[in-house]
Write a structure and sequence with these properties.
The protein is of the alpha+beta class. The protein contains five helices and twelve strands. It folds into two domains: 102 residues, Alpha-Beta Plaits; 113 residues, Alpha-Beta Plaits (2-Layer Sandwich). The protein is elongated.
Length: 222
């Protein structure tokens, strides 16, 4: 058996695909490519595929990671060539490499995700800088959101590692923010909640994930 780690990207054309549909898409693409997938044991066997930090609907990325288990050895470059031929517009494969079978799972290894967020505001840059400073100085930020009929209460500040202003477009009022948010089994920060906490009244025009950071700085995928 072999375990390959795939770094891929999603562009505007496919940013509204849900995580479940994304898993189905990759299963079909890998089968069509003739990749020798390894399957789980049991009555309902399924391909052994794992995507780290599932991407929220509407977000693009250049740093999506997926582990694929194969039933027999395959050169990573051959894997890339076969799979690329099955990908529609909007999907990119940047790299594939072999990793050990006993290395911890992707989801348990990720600590943070970095984003580039575009959001408009009529406020002046000084006010945004003050809001950024205040948020980072805060020790707690009580937050809640609804999911169906359930209300979830938590500390949003604990999910924010850093947030900074990259640039502001003077004539359009467009702000470009950088964010490093917690991303793991203990909870994940959402960029649109951070912009709301900063006082932006509009939802972001775009959210793009640029990097995944592993625990203990084992590796940075960017």
């Amino acid at each position: 058996m072999q375990r390959l780690r795939l770094k891929s990207g999603r562009e505007e054309e496919v940013k509204f695909i849900s995580h479940l549909d994304m898993m189905r898409f990759w299963e079909r693409a890998l089968r069509r490519a003739g990749v020798p997938l390894a399957y789980s044991q049991g009555f309902t066997a399924h391909p052994q595929i794992s995507i780290a930090a599932p991407l929220p609907v509407g977000v693009t990325t250049e740093a999506e990671l997926m582990d694929v288990w194969l039933s027999r050895w395959m050169p990573p470059q051959s894997f890339i060539m076969k799979v690329k031929s099955q990908l529609p517009q909007g999907f990119k494969i940047f790299d594939v490499w072999e990793i050990g079978l006993k290395i911890p799972s992707l989801q348990s290894s990720i600590a943070f995700a970095e984003y580039r967020v575009e959001v408009k505001s009529e406020g002046v840059e000084k006010d945004v800088q003050i809001a950024l400073h205040s948020l980072l100085q805060a020790t707690q930020l009580p937050w809640h959101h609804s999911r169906g009929r359930e209300e979830h209460f938590y500390d949003l500040r604990a999910l924010i590692e850093d947030v900074w202003l990259i640039e502001r477009e003077q004539f359009t009022g467009q702000y470009l923010l950088g964010m490093r948010l917690r991303c793991g089994n203990e909870g994940s920060g959402r960029p649109e909640q951070v912009t709301t906490a900063l006082g932006f009244s509009r939802q972001p025009d775009s959210i793009h994930r640029t990097k995944l950071i592993f625990k203990k700085q084992i590796a940075i995928i960017e």
